[in-house]
């Protein structure tokens, strides 16, 4: 599947100098969306994944489909204050400040194998924080799956030796 042709560049969004990779054309194309979900799940089919965790917000788009392909459930990781039940949280550093991620305390069963899904791997800070959060509540991060990776930002370096699958590299 030619995913690159379905990604639209939006210059200077959300701020000057950034080229935003817009996935909405891919999402609007039913066969491409189905193929993307299949391709994101494929490297992990034999890894006995117990749960897919999607990172807010676009990880929520791909995560449930990947979970369905892998025959497991799905749990969201959200920004602080967005989940209704008891949560565990992790605050992490950004380039200019901090952010906090949360997950329900009962979302992960101890020692379950977790696949973390998101649309984009850039600097790796959010994905690494999600991995730390999963470990904090007893899960084992068995992989990361992304639609897009911005290779020049070297985000995968923050994810260590955990398997990473990406459909598109820029």
From TrEMBL:
Cellular localisation: Cytoplasm
GO terms under biological process: adenine salvage; AMP salvage; purine ribonucleoside salvage
Predominant subcellular localization, coarse grouping: cytoplasm
Reactions that this protein is recorded to catalyse: AMP + diphosphate = 5-phospho-alpha-D-ribose 1-diphosphate + adenine
EC number: 2.4.2.7
Chain ranges of the Phosphoribosyltransferase domain: 28-138
Keyword check for Cytoplasm: yes
Classification via CDD domains: PRTases_typeI
GO cellular component assignments: cytoplasm
InterPro entries: Ade_phspho_trans (IPR005764), PRTase-like (IPR029057), PRTase_dom (IPR000836), UPRTase/APRTase (IPR050054)
A molecular-function term among this protein's GO annotations: AMP binding
Uppermost EC category: transferase
Keyword Transferase: yes
Family per similarity comment: Belongs to the purine/pyrimidine phosphoribosyltransferase family.
NCBIfam families named in the record: apt, PRK02304.1-3, PRK02304.1-5
Protein's job: Catalyzes a salvage reaction resulting in the formation of AMP, that is energically less costly than de novo synthesis.
Subunit structure: Homodimer.
Protein's UniProt name: Adenine phosphoribosyltransferase
Organism of derivation: Sulfidibacter corallicola
């Amino acid at each position: 599947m030619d995913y690159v042709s379905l990604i639209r560049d939006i210059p200077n969004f959300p701020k000057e100098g950034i080229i935003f990779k817009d996935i909405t054309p891919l999402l609007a194309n039913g066969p491409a969306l189905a193929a993307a979900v299949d391709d994101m799940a494929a490297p992990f089919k034999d890894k006995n994944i117990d749960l897919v965790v999607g990172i807010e917000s676009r990880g929520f788009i791909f995560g449930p489909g990947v979970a369905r392909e892998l025959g497991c459930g799905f749990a969201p990781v959200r920004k602080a204050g967005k989940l209704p039940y008891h949560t565990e949280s992790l605050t992490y550093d950004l380039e200019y400040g901090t952010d906090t991620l949360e997950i329900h305390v009962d979302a992960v069963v101890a020692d379950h194998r977790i696949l973390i899904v998101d649309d984009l791997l850039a600097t790796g800070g959010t994905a690494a924080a999600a991995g730390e959060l999963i470990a904090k509540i007893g899960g084992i991060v068995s992989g990361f799956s992304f639609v897009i990776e911005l290779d020049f930002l070297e985000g995968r370096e923050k994810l260590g030796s955990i398997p990473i699958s990406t459909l598109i590299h820029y």
